[in-house]
Amino acid sequence: MNDVSSAPLRSTARSATLRLLVAAVLLGVTAPSLLRATVDDALSFAYEAALPYYKQGFSIRKDAWGGDLGVKDKKAVSSQLFKGNDYWFLMATDVKGASLSVHIYDDQGNLVEAESWQKGRFAGARVNPKATGTFFAIVQILKSPEERTPWALVYGYK
Amino acid sequence: MLHSKTLLGEGIFAGFPMKKLFPILLVLVIAAGSLHPLHADNPPKKIALSDFPAAAVEEVVVPVPSEIFAVLDKLGNPNWKAQLRNGKAQTPEDRAHTALLLGNVIAEGFVAVEAEDAERVKELGRQVLTLAEAINVRKSVIARSKSITDKADQRDWRGVRAEFDGALQDVRGAMQELNDQDLSQLVSLGGWLRGTEVLTSIVQAGFSKDGAELLHQPELVNYFDRCISAMSPRLRKNPLVANIREVLRQIGPMVGARGGITPENVKSIHELTSGVDHQIVNGGN
């Protein structure tokens, strides 16, 4: 009896294990692409934030940074900037209800931005470097309904 | 009898009955409130960059030549036509070499845009396509190549710049999808070398501290050196890549020098980059 009753149980357990395995494999395969998809969405919003500056004559770089961060987590994005250019850094996320910020520091850790703004899922900072060299855009998720928030940062120059 | 009297607006609203004007004003006030949503938070004036562990620091994005050329244009009136390279490079058989040449040709595209030479721009757009085909990423730049031609015909230089930047990004993206990170880095490196060769040539022609300061790119040089260090042993042993690494290590201290970059250093950097660019374009080690 035990054998009879345990057979379907084993089969159920086996199929459950199989389902778990398939789910894990699928998750493993799709998770990076899902993340990439949301970072791509964040990038679309970042380009949207950059549009007014494009209209002002800024060339917006196609190259961009992106990833995902927890709330209050910060990341330093290094950038080579040239004295004589004017730069705008624009950051965005696709997560509704999230807010974030971007600020520019020189390689000594001094705040060097000429202006900055923050509006919900968009943020921007402008810098006219006083010297050519390495600068850091410090990006942060201020609040978000998600545990991890995808973000993207683009910049433009003129 | 005030309540029965129709109040009339003044100024630009002169002649409007207040009863009709009020809802409009209300909407404008609300709209004005929502149109002023740009707030600035209060960032610290000073931070300790050492608080950021390596994992919390994103690598530098390699600037495109036009970011530097834009400054040179502000500093003076460079003779961009004199910087243009003649002829068409042959497609190398070696993939690493092809990736370097592809980046180099895209950088040359930016020079041709500065020189406003539409025919050269179109020719370089076609070369980008040929080289991309040689390393299996042709599909990613077909549309860009066509746009480069169209925009060059329209003399839409800003548009052409954006297309060359896009081509660079698309090619690198396609390589990364093929898990060819190393080749993707070589494309950027090839572009940077040509951009630096042109920059040093212009700065040499009319030396100024502001012009020379554009070479202050120590982190970028370190970044390229790190990239080569992380490449497969086979690529690191590639004679051209090994030579470029040696050149980067010679350039590093010069572009990081405190107190500015001297005319002698500008000359040395020019000789080093033009030597290696010559190898990239014409072959030979």
| Helix and strand sequence of chain B | HEHHHHHHHHHHHH
Q: Which overall shape of chain B is indicated by the principal axes computed on the Cα atoms?
A: globular
The rough form of chain A would be described as globular
Give the overall average pLDDT of chain A.
84
Tell me which CATH architecture of chain A applies here.
Sandwich
> Most extensive chain contact?
A-B, 43 and 46 residues
| Main sheet summary of chain A | 6 strands, antiparallel
Strand content of chain B: under 5%
- Which regions of chain B are unreliable across 5 or more consecutive residues at pLDDT < 50? 1-16, 32-36
Let me know the number of strands of chain A: 9
Order of helices and strands of chain A: HEEEEEEEEE
The structure class of chain A reads alpha+beta
CATH topology of chain A: Jelly Rolls
Unreliable sequence segments of chain A: 1-12, 26-32
Quaternary organisation: heterodimer
CA(first)-CA(last) distance of chain A: 81 Å
Helical stretch count of chain B? 13
What's the CATH class of chain A, please?
Mainly Beta
Task: Throw out a few tags for this protein.
heterodimer; A: 158 residues; Jelly Rolls; 6-stranded antiparallel β-sheet; 9 strands; globular; B: 285 residues; mainly alpha; disordered N terminus
